[in-house]
Amino acid sequence: MLAKRIIPCLDIKNGRTVKGVNFIDLRDAGDPIELAKIYSENGADELVFLDISATLEGRKTMLDLVLEVAKQINIPFTVGGGISSLEDVEALLKFGADKVSVNSSAIKRPDLINELSKKFGNQCIVVAIDAKQIHGQWKVHLAGGTISTDLDLFEWAKEVEQRGAGEILFTSMDHDGTKNGFANLVLKQLSEELNIPIIASGGAGNIQHFIDTFQLGKADAALAASVFHFGEIEILDLKRKLKNNNIEVRL
Predict the structure, then answer these.
(1) Alpha-carbon distance 69 to 83, whole Å?
(2) How confident is the model over 216-228, as pLDDT tens digits?
(3) Whether 130 is catalytic
(4) Which residue in 88, 130, 212, 220 is the catalytic one?
């Protein structure tokens, strides 16, 4: 059985790590390079860096930060934000990223997923999907959750898989930053309907939430931010508790 992964997420704005609730009310959470080093040394399986304002501001993810992070850590890391072309991905991989995450650009031009997968291999293509419930339907949002679309979460996830995504990073906007637990019913449905790994994001508040998302939500990995950034959960402690609950993790 594949080990479940624990992935700290660093949302980057103006070169700093930030964290908000329901995608708003951002507060400073520290230097991303320092945090990356700490997580790498303390049991994180992977890291995700999201330049959260890159799409809104129409600019590219910071290559110098990617290069610096690559020098400091020895675990895989994914970079997202403002990625819209083969050239963007080529540069990020060249500067040391292991995977890239696309979101808004894939919604606007789905063929991008096919092109990236064909050129770089699906193992390094993550499609991030931000969704929230609107009148009982899970609808996909873009541009950092600021623009709603008519796309149904499950239909889009299936299309993404067919087009060559290697994994899906699903964030429930309704749960994000609330610390009330992950969207496990939705995660379970995604896991049952797709054949690629699903990374759970949005809602981690305590260790039980991680246990639940692996056991009930059938997630392949769990991503969180503030509980790690502000020292509320230590990754090694989390992994020991997961192992005690018969969840396979790397220690």
Answers:
(1) 18
(2) 999 999 999 889 9
(3) yes
(4) 130
